Amino acid sequence: MRRLALLFIAATLSLTAAAQRSFDFAEKFLSRCKGDSTVKCVTVSPKMLEQMLKQHEGDRNESLIQAIGKLKSVRIVTAHEDYYQRAEELLLKNSRRFKADKDYRTEHAHGAFFTRKNKEGNTVELIMLHEDCKSQLLTIINLTGDIDEEFLCFLYNNKTFKN
Fold first, then answer.
1. What phi and psi values does residue 159 have, to the nearest 5 degrees?
2. What is the dihedral of CA 84, 39, 90, 45, to 10 degrees?
3. pTM score, whole prediction
4. Domains of the chain
């Protein structure tokens, strides 16, 4: 009886921990694309980000370095064909969780920014969708961590993402 009780407690704790785990957008999107070999994902860890920053010490923007240091992970997903529409639909379907922030369109590309905020109103996830119109290559950049307003402004005002 004692073993059964311990087994039940262990099972309950593991289910609770699994239920509390929050999936980022890239993980949700990848689960929808299982089995499709054209969809690729690369995850960049904080340690790898730190190493990349050390390599480029000449072009130091201290506030950008500080913002990047607050990130937990960066996932870069690439896919072809109609995946931009699928990704956007998934974000819009989960509009209570992900809020549209800004979109852009140029002659060669288009995209959108979405954010997820925690209960305190801080941005904890940033999703950038980008599609090259000519090649129809979708790139999703999914940042998680403590994403401050200064970092968001830097990204939004970057010449690559201007309207």
1. -60, -25
2. -110
3. 0.75
4. 22-161 (3.30.310)
